[in-house]
Design a protein that fits this description.
heterodimer, A: mainly alpha, 71% helix
């Protein structure tokens, strides 16, 4: 069981309630595909991913970024049992999508950097610690059903 | 994953712009390293105050960031240029190289929050590659 402090709970709820999912999702996924180009292996059907501006302007990337971020809502709403909440998604990523779980960490790092850019000085070390702890739990839960 | 001409230009241009803020960048990145990854505090047990904003964190953050900026100047031969620093980290400081990834991540976070307009995805990938190469050069003399 993950223990959350009041500060951590409030911080996570706060960040996500104020987040523009479409913008942040697009930014985070696009950055991931640009900074770690091998992640493009999962997006063969997404059309033009040839360079940074193509990726930034790609509507399928934008749409999928929003899908992924809305997927985080499940964890935000079930902070006391993210492991159970993500059991099905974990099976999906393992059995159907065949995503190497290391990619979850890479996307998480890009999301952290995008959120930092959005919040500026509001992304204090304490907020960063809470956000990264949350993402670590999400990543661990998504890896759980791999075998 | 070596640095292309495009990467080197992006790194030089970006750090040319933001280098004046070396103390802010370095001390914030170091503060976050110590706070978000508490195991890194084990290297600083001789400091009185490890909290963000402490004078020791500020001073050392500047030292680290000045190291990064000097690496920018040495970008065409990082292994050769950073030999002495590598010896320092390998024989004296004996910092586990896994920690280089941690401080690099926090440098990226700080650059993103301080310079959201300039820290584009293209700059991000070049700086990430550069910091990875710096880490490799610093690890050179370890064994």
């Amino acid at each position: 069981m993950v223990e959350w402090t009041d500060f951590e709970r409030t911080t996570i709820q706060d960040i996500f309630s104020k987040m523009n999912y479409e913008v942040v999702g697009q930014q985070a996924l696009a950055r991931c595909l640009i900074v770690y180009p091998w992640t493009q292996r999962y997006f063969g059907k997404f059309g033009n991913l040839y360079n940074a501006s193509a990726i930034m302007g790609n509507p399928m990337v934008a749409a999928h970024g929003a899908v992924v971020l809305h997927g985080l809502d499940k964890a935000v709403k079930n902070m006391d049992n993210i492991k159970a909440a993500y059991a099905e998604l974990s099976v999906l990523h393992s059995e159907k999508l065949h995503v190497d779980p290391d990619n979850f960490r890479l996307l998480g790092d890009c999301l952290t950097i995008v959120v930092a850019g959005q919040l500026g000085s509001g992304f204090t070390p304490e907020v960063q610690a809470a956000f990264q702890k949350f993402l670590a739990v999400v990543v661990s839960s998504l890896q759980r059903q791999y075998h | 994953m070596s640095l292309s001409a495009k990467d080197k230009l992006a790194v030089k241009t970006f750090f040319g712009k933001v280098g004046a803020k070396a103390e802010d960048i370095g001390s914030d990145a170091l503060a976050r390293t110590l706070f978000v990854y508490p195991q890194t505090k084990t290297y600083f047990s001789h400091w009185a105050d490890l909290s963000p904003g402490s004078p020791q964190v500020k001073k050392h953050g500047l030292t680290v960031m000045n190291g990064v900026l000097s690496a920018v100047e040495l970008i065409d031969d990082l292994k050769g240029g950073l030999l002495t620093l590598s010896e320092l980290h390998a024989f004296m400081l004996r910092v586990d190289p896994a920690n280089f990834k941690i401080i690099n991540h926090n440098l990226l976070v700080v650059l993103s929050l301080m310079f959201p307009e300039d820290f584009t995805a293209e700059v991000h990938v070049s700086v990430d590659k550069f910091l990875a190469q710096v880490s490799l050069a610093l690890s050179e003399k370890y064994r």
